[in-house]
Design brief:
Blueprint lengths: L5 H10 L2 H8 L10 H13 L16 H4 L6 H8 L4 H18 L12 E12 L9 E2 L5 E11 L6 E8 L9 H14 L8 E6 L6 H9 L3 E5 L4 H8 L7 E11 L4 E15 L9 E11 L3 H6 L8 E2 L2 E4 L5 H9 L3 H10 L11 H25 L8 H9 L4 E5 L2 E5 L7 H13 L8
């Protein structure tokens, strides 16, 4: 078999109650939707092994896979199954994904440091599609034609990101559409996974696309704090202009940051903080007063540099963060920049099952996205159990090191034995993963 890592991987899924959760929460009524627990498990298994299209699900039928796994579905069966999903069924599958994440946290240290602080990152991404038969495709915020996926991830300062929730939307959908309800759901999911327990801090981070009263209010109602990039409107600019010249604190980044706007690396800046009341155009009761943390970065004077002439005076850009966190100014500014971790999640998904949205049916693609989330979190959990460098490795590395490993199958006394490669550098991690999932008792399904 070509992917022996599926043995401990799917054993972990079984112990986390994947099949039981699907059986309890997903109710497909059409004949093509029968036996959902088996088909969803097959889809997740294929994605863990690297499948990024419906046809790729055929890898589960290669070689001696049938000698180890039962209930493997043909690719055509998986495609027909996905097309039976409606909007309500996709929500049911999303409920399975949320509960599976909560169960997985009982098997591995997925949230180290959550007793102190956890970060909830919200962002959307455009997945390009081609042709005219893709339902819901449209031109998004970046001019790309495709479908829009809204993602929420939870992480800790020393942990790898996990996906709380994902939502597939029309390509032309604005980033902030439905964000308030989505953020509230993500906060509750993160809390179910261990964030915010015993009064620990949960901070929702987002860019300026989500700078709105609805999102800020939803975060407050859910019991979390917010850290959102402020839009550079007149009110914010006027507040920045009031900052005293002596209030700026120089900072130097541990690692230089590449500025996309100026196309250069930035290694130093200055930071200042003032109180700011946002959303003053709304009724007084809905005004929000919090901290405005401003980073001042010198603009690149390219013309003067090219001519050899000195700069007459410096000009600056003022990216600002609106936050109500109780931590210090420099910590808050640094931690907000950590929001970029969600871009790594986007890259991980595109390097895996989200390389394609394989169906012409919108709800089938939405169900595919939910299975992608489950496969991502399952792979992350396997990496955490393997330990060492796999704890924070990308999913592509985890697949190469732990999943897509060939093995020879022999049988003695009707008992199969897997013979793994010799001189395999990641054998200790794989063996630790295998021993853990085959000795720990299963976790009851989340309510």
């Amino acid at each position: 078999m070509s992917a022996v890592g599926l043995v401990p991987g799917m054993a972990l899924a079984d112990r986390a109650g994947l099949s039981d959760l699907v059986d309890e929460h997903v109710a497909l009524t059409k004949p093509s939707g029968c036996n959902a627990p088996v088909t969803v498990s097959a889809l997740v298994a294929g994605m863990v092994a690297g499948a990024d299209s419906i046809d790729d699900m055929g890898l589960l039928r290669h070689g001696g896979m049938h000698r180890i796994f039962g209930g493997v579905r043909a690719p055509s069966t998986c495609g027909t199954f996905l097309r039976t999903f409606t909007f309500g069924h996709v929500l049911q599958l999303a409920a399975v994904s949320r509960r599976l994440l909560a169960n997985l946290t009982g098997h591995a240290p997925l949230m180290p440091g959550a007793d102190q602080i956890s970060f909830l990152d919200i962002d959307d991404t455009m997945k390009a599609t081609y042709g005219y038969a893709k339902q819901g495709a449209g031109y998004g915020y970046n001019g790309v034609k495709g479908l829009n996926a809204l993602l929420g991830t939870v992480t800790t300062p020393t942990g790898a990101p996990l996906i709380c929730r994902a939502l597939l939307r029309r390509g032309s959908t604005g980033s902030a559409r439905g964000a308030a309800r989505f953020v509230a759901s993500c906060v509750h999911t993160a809390q179910g996974a261990g964030a915010g327990r015993d009064g620990a801090l949960v901070v929702m981070r987002a860019d300026s696309a989500f700078y709105s009263h609805a999102v800020v209010a939803a975060v407050g109602r859910a019991g979390a704090r917010f850290s959102i990039t402020a839009r550079q409107n007149r009110s914010v600019q006027a507040a920045i202009a009031t900052i005293d010249a002596q209030a700026w604190t120089p900072i130097q980044y541990p690692n230089a940051i590449f500025d996309e706007d100026q196309q250069r690396w930035i290694s130093d800046a200055e930071v200042a903080e003032i109180d700011y009341t946002a959303f003053t155009s709304r009724p007084t009761a809905e005004h929000v007063t919090a901290r405005l943390i401003v980073r001042r970065v010198k603009r690149l004077q390219s013309g003067a540099k090219a001519s050899g002439q000195g700069v007459l005076f410096d000009t600056y850009r003022y990216p600002a963060v609106f936050t109500d966190t109780p931590i210090t100014m420099l910590q808050a500014e640094s931690q907000h920049r950590g929001h970029a971790i969600i871009e790594g999640v986007h890259a991980d998904l595109r390097a895996g099952a989200l390389a394609h949205l394989p169906s012409g049916h919108f709800q089938a693609n939405a169900a595919w996205l939910q299975c992608t989330v489950m496969a991502f979190n399952l792979t992350r959990t396997a990496g955490a159990l393997a330990g060492s460098l796999h704890t924070k490795a990308t999913t592509a590395s985890l697949r190469a090191h732990l999943i897509s490993v060939p093995a020879r199958i022999t049988t003695s006394g009707r008992r199969p034995t897997l013979h793994l490669p010799r001189d395999w550098p990641w054998e200790p991690g794989w063996q630790q993963l295998f021993d853990t999932v085959t000795t720990r008792p299963p976790t009851p399904a989340a309510a």
